[in-house]
Amino acid sequence: MARSGSCSVPESVPQPGEHPPRRCRSDTSTPPTRWRDHRKASLMLKGFRDFIAQGNVIDLAVAVIIGAAFSPIVKAVTNVLLNIIGAVVGSPNFDSLGAFSINGSDPIQPGTILTAVVNFLLVAAAIYFCVVVPMNKLKERTRKAQEIEAADEVPAPSETELLVQIRDLLADRK
Asked: Of 118, 117, 114, 130, which is closest to residue 72 (Cα–Cα)?
């Protein structure tokens, strides 16, 4: 330990779990809370690193990226379906349906809610038929293939069965 005036200052850095070194009141170069703040920040970063390293967060990040890349496909399918609805009904949206105004104000259009619901249902249908159904069929095919492979495999004889076979072979030699 080095001596500086009447205060003692350790030369080594404290290990995790140890208290920070005592400082003299006249020594203002390092405030006493600095060690605690550094430790809190270190623990916070460790917790964040552990959180990010979890599989769920990485899976979610991949899902968001794939969802963003898949968005134009869903938008195109939705536009095609809205154009078909527009050809049948006369307009691809229902914004002006039930429009009214109060005391000459801007028109209030409750049909926008109906348009949003139709858009949601079209997007959900596009995702279901373009992603969910093909993935379920793919899972079913791979599951059936694994079941067929498992059924075709002959189970390996147990250790007892092998010993019995060896005994019988040795008995036949005599």
From this structure: 130
Residue 167 structure tokens: 């005994």
User: Can you tell me the distance from the alpha carbon of 79 to that of 83, in angstroms, rounded to the nearest whole number?
Assistant: 6
DSSP H/E element including 51: helix 33-53
- 117 has which bridge partners? none
Predicted structure pTM score: 0.47
- Each residue of 57-91: pLDDT tens digit? 777 888 889 888 888 888 888 888 888 888 887 77
Q: How far apart are CA 93 and CA 25, in angstroms?
A: 74
The answer to whether 28 and 8 have CB atoms below 8 angstroms apart is no
Give, as one character, the DSSP assignment of residue 16.
T
Q: Which residues of 60-69 are buried (b: 16+ CB within 10 A; e: fewer)?
A: eeeeeeeeee
